[in-house]
Amino acid sequence: MVDTSDEWIRTRTGIVERRIADSDVATSDLAYLASQAALEAAGMEARELDLIIVATVTPDMFFPCTAAVLQGKLGPPTPAFDLLVGCTGFVYGLAVAREMVASGAYNRILVCGAETLSKITDWEDRSTCVLFGDAAGAAIVAPVAEGHGILGYALGNDGTKADFLKIEAGGSRRPATQQTVAERAHYLKMNGPEVFKFAVRVMAESSEEVVSRAGLEMSDISLAIPHQANLRIIDAAAKRFNLPWDRFARSVERYGNTSAASIPLALDEAVRGRLVKPGDLILLSSFGAGLSWASMVMRW
Q: What is the mean pLDDT of each run of 10 residues along the chain (300 residues)?
């Protein structure tokens, strides 16, 4: 569809394969499957949930929120809302859930990162169409023993760089018209070089900040799970983190950039692959639209 090749894609992104949802599959469908898997892993039933948070930039529709659609699929009435902060959404969701559980307001919160990015990909834009895939991942946030679970997080946003990663049309600024459709303005647009520079810097800075806040050293981290956007970004981040390459979880080769789903997807693979042991210190680090960033330290 565009002037590219397998060799070009692998060399510049590290991506070898990815998943594309069928035309009749929406984000809530993937979110439902991931949520069922998370509930099963936690030994829980949907009726035990107090709250549902879905992080996505590809909702089924503008409203109702995708979390509400997911709640309807899961069954029991539960408060539900979406977070729209791009690739940082899952970590933002964990941070929100952590505070709501710590406050005592809620006890068991489902956090899901789900995307069908193929629906907003411009397949005529070589700079973006080779990057994105569809996926969903979910986790349950609940009370744990002192010293375990989420130890700290660092969130941020620089709105002066908002134009670097966006869908321009379809909202109140540029409502859908024949012109916006003709301009292909309803597809994702990205300034790749600027996002690359931003990503490497903020992932390193926010990770150092949250590790320090938790009273730890970077060398204490057992496994780092960065946003799986591009293998070159992960490689550059690894050098800035000063951690061995084998302490970085990687799944971008198999799934591409799945936005809010990428970190839960990589975390799940690490857990299933027994790369994570009880007591291990895990670092999550992400960047995304906004331009936003989010890092978190947890003790497994």
A: 88 93 98 98 96 98 97 95 97 98 96 98 93 97 94 97 96 97 96 93 94 94 94 86 86 95 96 92 96 97
Q: Do 98 and 141 meet the contact criterion of CB atoms below 8 Å apart?
A: yes
Alpha carbon distance 214, 93 (integer Å): 19
Contact between 284 and 249 (Cβ < 8 Å): no
The answer to whether residues 286 and 153 touch, using CB atoms and an 8 Å cutoff, is no
Structural domains of the chain ordered from first start: 6-146 (3.40.47.10), 150-299 (3.40.47.10)
pTM exceeding 0.90: yes
The residues, any chain, with a CB within 8 Å of residue 286's CB and separated by 6 or more, are 87, 88, 90, 91, 203, 226, 227, 262, 263, 293, 294, 295
Catalytic residues: 87, 227, 257
Contact indicator for 192, 131 with CB cutoff of 8 Å: no
